[in-house]
Specification:
Elements (H helix, E strand, L loop, with lengths): L2 E10 L4 E9 L2 E6 L8 E4 L4 E4 L1 E6 L4 E2 L2 E2 L4 H10 L2 E9 L6 H12 L6 E7 L5 H12 L4 E5 L10 H14 L2 E5 L3 H13 L6 H6 L2 H18 L3 E3 L5 H12 L4 E5 L1 H5 L2 H4 L21 H10 L4 E2 L32 H10 L5 H15 L17 E11 L18 E11 L2 E4 L24
Length: 461
Amino acid sequence: MSRTLIHGGLVITASDEIHADVLIEDGRIAAVGAAGVLTADRTIDATGKYVIPGGVDAHTHMELPFGGTFASDTFETGTRAAAWGGTTTIVDFAVQSVGRPLREGLDAWHAKAEGNCAIDYGFHMIVSDVNQETLKEMDLLVEEGVTSFKQFMAYPGVFYSDDGQILRAMQRSAENGGLIMMHAENGIAIDVLVEQALARGETDPRFHGEVRKALLEAEATHRAIRLAQVAGAPLYVVHVSATEAVAELARARDEGLNVFGETCPQYLFLSTDNLAEPDFEGAKYVCSTPLRPKEHQAALWRGLRTNDLQVVSTDHCPFCFTGQKELGRGDFSKIPNGLPGVEHRMDLLHQAVVDGHISRRRWIEIACATPARMFGLYPKKGTIAPGADADVVIYDPGAEQVISAETHHMNVDYSAYEGKRITGRVETVLSRGVPVITEREYTGRAGHGVYTPRSTCQYLN
């Protein structure tokens, strides 16, 4: 049995920072101890580096069908890119088609992922059609480790659920221990505003942000919270982007409700200035919820510091500019919604540490430990402790890099952060003790990553 020792680094978890050696045996962390005490067959020198848990990205969409096309990253390309960025577990979304069973959608996503992933993965289930059969299936899925269900208050005619369907699913999750994840935007009202904008000839990408108003995100967030309260169910609101929506979450949490919020790097680092870029370049930044004016960023950072927002995921859903985003030339409502980001989350959040927005431990908390706890993967994932999977990243906090489509590994023809200079870079990544990135070289393989069933949310009483 081979033993690997990571020597000389600063081990950072959500709770501790300690200069220590990490011993890995049989794919798991065997010990964390004082330097020089532990021995092994192979030693990785981490002197001057951080030793951190592999990132857990709890919101990705590989191969997602949307707007007449598909997300451009496959499970193979997307998980390889994730590994390059120090993420060692993703939780992707299987999709129920209207009129079809949940099981059929879940099986389809298993088929897409199996044998193709460089890192470990789990699934949430998108519930598009709430009926008696669906509700029964939710119980079965929770039992087998698919413990979270996403619903949409947006996209009428595609994924949309009305308040009655949402309430029924929430009532079921209150009984079976599942967690409802909500895309909170008032899609019915937004569709009216889209129709009116297009009638006025307002077709450019920037109008995507103008019709999907922050108040309609806040209204839907408030409504989702109250429906969850009526159902006695916990609620996780995805991709929170607006000051007013954060305020709704903070109010609910102050009332003692089991309500949680996630934001994404694009809302922390990008804005409507990007959506307004000329010559249709703004299409690269079309996602939903949309990018907001820069002044919303302060509320998101504050929410992350005060724990009114607990998780930063990517909502990685890439579409190439050429041939995919271009479907919306002359009609912003036809631009596929989504941004590439799975490769850059850990680095951008380290830049937030450098910039003084968050602490190092908070970086690990929002990117590794909390998503693992929220979705029933902790302490197997999300920390460095004896018994945990040896998902470990050697991180060089002083290395500088420039983000660019020319050097990223995602299967998409642009970067949302093109030319951005950041400090900090992944050097080596281990997934269950196996080197996937070795001193900035890819040494992993498709099929190393395994499906990981999850327990229920670990923040609930």
